[in-house]
Write a structure and sequence with these properties.
By secondary structure, this protein is mainly α. It contains two helices and no strands. The chain starts with a helix and ends in a 12-residue tail after the last helix.
Length: 70
């Protein structure tokens, strides 16, 4: 399940960057195409944030130093 959520996170952020770039760099697109690209970028951002937050909350990282016992 953790790998599936990680895959969703990566794909969502990739969609955010790809469609965000299309929405921002459009010069000859129609208004409908720009709005659709912006909407898809927003959906990618929201799902990416939720997937990342799920991963962070379920798999906390412990940053304490490990001491070696002799």
């Amino acid at each position: 399940m953790k790998k599936l959520i990680a895959l969703i996170c990566v794909v969502s952020w990739a969609g955010f960057w790809a469609f965000g770039y299309l929405a921002l760099s459009a010069s000859t697109f129609d208004d409908g195409q720009v709005m659709l690209a912006a909407l898809l970028a927003f959906v990618g951002m929201v799902t990416g944030v939720f997937a990342y937050m799920w991963l962070v909350r379920t798999q906390p990282v412990d940053y304490r130093r490990v001491t070696q016992s002799v």
